[in-house]
Amino acid sequence: MTADHDSIAGSTAEPRWLDDEQQQAWRSFLLGTTLLLDRLDEDLRRDHGLAVVEYEILVRLSEAGGQLRMAKLAAALAHSRSRVTHTVKRMEAADLVVRAESPEDGRGVTCQLTKNGVAMLETAAPSHVETVRQSLVDLVEPADLVALGRVMDAVCDHLIADHPERELR
Q: If you count Cβ atoms within 10 Å of the first and of the last residue's Cβ in the chain, which end, N or C, has fewer?
């Protein structure tokens, strides 16, 4: 570790290196999540012309009754507002969503599902959930899936605490 890194990290203590088992688990997590997200994206693009983030926007809007403020949508996705704005513009061009002034106060902007967006979600959801099943859920024991959920909840809770402006759940 360099002196510059020590000052950035705020400590000169020796790193707590991962043991072999922890390193293996970490590497499996990184590779597995990359491959899983790539598969989900590949299948959605091939079968429905949607990126996985576009699908997730449709899901979040549907679960919220068809509309969300853009800031809340960005927080729910753990993406920057500019990234969500760019994605939503693409989705507007495909008539999956529209943006409008917030009916609550007229200051904020909401993202709303269109009829085409609802239809796309209804069409894409069955094949997407099948990919999720084939690529994750059906590969592990139910108790392991529950444990994975607990692990990722703990990670989310810890990282959300660092960014309380995020309302992910």
A: C
Return the SS3 of 63: helix
Q: Which two tokens stand for residue 147?
A: 């444990």
Give tens-digit pLDDT for 117-155: 999 999 999 999 999 999 999 999 999 999 999 999 999
Distance CA 121, CA 12 (A): 51
Domain boundaries, the chain: 20-162
Q: What percent of the chain has pLDDT over 70?
A: 89
- Confirm if 101 and 67 have CB atoms less than 8 A apart: no
* Domain at 20-162: CATH code: 1.10.10.10
Cross-strand pairs, 109: 101
Q: Long-range pairs for 77-82 at CB < 8 Å and ≥24 separation? A: 77/53, 78/166, 78/168, 79/53
Tokens of 139: 């590969």
